[in-house]
Amino acid sequence: MSRLPVMSNKRVLPSSSSETSQDFAPLQKKSRSDAEPPAKPQAAATVFVAKRPVAAARPNVSKAPVKRTGAATVASGPSRGVLRPSAVSTAARGGNVKATTGAKVVGGTKRPPWDLKGKVSDMEEKITNYQTRVKSINQENEVLKGSMAQSQKRTFEMEKDLQIHMRKIGELEKRVALLSGVEEELVQVSTERDTLHKDLSNLEGKYKIMETLRDSQEAELQILKMKLSVQESSLARLQQTLADTEEEVRSLKETVSQQKDELYAGEMERRKLHNAIQELKGNIRVFCRVRPLVNGGLSKHIHLASDDKTSISLAKTEESHTGKGTDTQRNYNFSFDRVFGPQTSQQEVFEEISLLVQSALDGYNVCCFAYGQTGSGKTYTMEGEEFHESRGVIPRAVQQIFKASDKLSSQGWEFTFTASFVEIYNETLRDLLYTGKADKRPDHEIRKSNNGELTVTNLTYQKVSCEDQVLGLIALANQNRSTAQTAQNDRSSRSHSVFKLDIEGVNTGRDVKCKSALCLVDLAGSERMLKSQSQGDRFKEMTAINGSLSNLGIVIAALANKESYVPYRNSKLTYLLQNCLGGNSKTLMFVNIAPEPDSFGETLNSLRFASKVNDCVIGTASANRK
Ligand SMILES: Nc1ncnc2c1ncn2[C@@H]1O[C@H](COP(=O)(O)OP(=O)(O)OP(=O)(O)O)[C@@H](O)[C@H]1O
């Protein structure tokens, strides 16, 4: 923005030359007294500076030479044709009048001192010159006054103009100030605009990136939409498949439920049939097992029919009493439910009793005895040996029971098993699963509760859930027996051992329970000894053994004859086994026989005892189901 030019109003004072001041001093005083009151000294001395040259403006003073000074400037134009006083005085003095001190020169001639007249004339001339000059100065002064008035007027106008201009300038300056504010704002705005431009450009960059991103995301979205659509169609297919499958599962569940019902009905039917078969076979059965000869080979006096697995005959050659006749051979024939020869394996023996073991899971009490003289193979039959193939009835029965219970669990059955192992020696009970100190062994009593359940006080009843646990218990029982054996020679032959597995089954779905017991008994050696030969402890042992074994026969016979009183209490063995022997049980007796000729008598006795048992028919067993 351009500013308007400001006019200078400098005041120019008369020449400061001392000479000029001295020369004009009287004239100035005089002119004041003669003329009108002087104007303000400042106004009189004010000269406006102009560009016009001085000579052209001064016609009335052209005769006098003008001494120019740096400050002698004349205003231009006719109204301004004012000569400065200094210039006028200089012009006056510039004449040839040299009224100076000393010898006066007139017409180029110096007057002698005595020429007073001449001198006066010179003085008069000089005065006249001065007067003329004063006149002209006065005139000039008048002119100057007029000029000065004009100038003052002009100055006044110009001052007015100046004020107007100044006001305008003030306004303009205000506007300029405003404009400068606006300018600053404009600069700020411009800066902001630049910043905004930058931001905009950044945003544009970002926008482009976002656009690219958006494009890629849109592309991704499209792909995802496609995938979703594919997934949706797959889902629809899967839902349909699921619905179909669910329908199928539902119908299969119905089928399974029906089949479960059928299975349950079938299982019940199987139990009925199974029981019927067992009943047809007799609720008390006797199996005869012949031990092989210790040195191998065949026994000469024991004959087993190759085509009949139920009969056995003992042959004995009897010398003629008269001595006249030849020796006669006497045969003792016996028939049992099954006769096992010396070569029969443990597996074959067990297969014959496995159906009976199954009955225990069906809720029937099952009791299995091994009867026979010492060394005839009772323990081998019942427990067997560690070698897998040589395992006896107890471990195999336990294995079958656990396998069968696992199968029945799919039909909703849950079983719990409790094992106990007791020894009866000299009519005293001993816990074979006892693990405490030997001198702290407790006494045991057989107790019968009101509901007919038998328990032995202080006896170890061990919960078992697998075959291995039972095998561990059998090992513990053998250890307990061998400890007793060292103290008392051949004790195991003189005691009965009773392994009992209590079985409880629950079918919550069908609200059925069953309870039974599987008793596996290894009886004491059955050999008879002549009373005269038995003494002391051995006599006592024999009495106890014979008593319990004969009592066993009596009980079985009483049961067979359906006698009102069955003397279970006569021995600890029958009292302990009463629930397994009674009408509600299935009983199997192994009669083990030794094939050696010197065991003939004991073998015959054993077969006779077993035959008596075999002839017994115990009443129909019923399952303990609620
Ligand atoms: N069927 C068999 N096959 C092979 N060996 C057998 C058979 N029966 C028994 N034995 C063997 O005969 C011996 C005597 O058998 P075991 O101990 O079982 O007789 P036991 O009747 O239990 O005698 P005890 O009354 O003294 O206990 C054992 O060494 C046993 O291994």
UniProtKB/TrEMBL annotation:
Residue ranges constituting the Kinesin motor domain according to the UniProt record: 283-616
Gene Ontology CC: microtubule
Keyword Coiled coil: yes
Amino acid composition bias (Polar residues), ranges on this chain: 14-23
Gene Ontology terms for molecular function: ATP binding; microtubule binding; microtubule motor activity
Binding annotation for ATP: G372, Q373, T374, G375, S376, G377, K378, T379
Region (Disordered): 1-43, 68-94
Primary residence: cytoplasm
Subcellular location as annotated: Cytoplasm, Cytoskeleton
InterPro entries per UniProt: Kinesin-like_fam (IPR027640), Kinesin_motor_dom (IPR001752), Kinesin_motor_dom_sf (IPR036961), P-loop_NTPase (IPR027417)
Keyword list, A-Z: ATP-binding, Coiled coil, Cytoplasm, Cytoskeleton, Microtubule, Motor protein, Nucleotide-binding
Alphabetized CDD domains for the sequence: KISc_C_terminal (cd01366)
Coiled coil location: 200-262
One Pfam assignment: Kinesin
Transmembrane segments: none
Gene Ontology BP terms: microtubule-based movement
Family: Belongs to the TRAFAC class myosin-kinesin ATPase superfamily. Kinesin family.
Protein name, per record: Kinesin motor domain-containing protein
Source species: Mugilogobius chulae
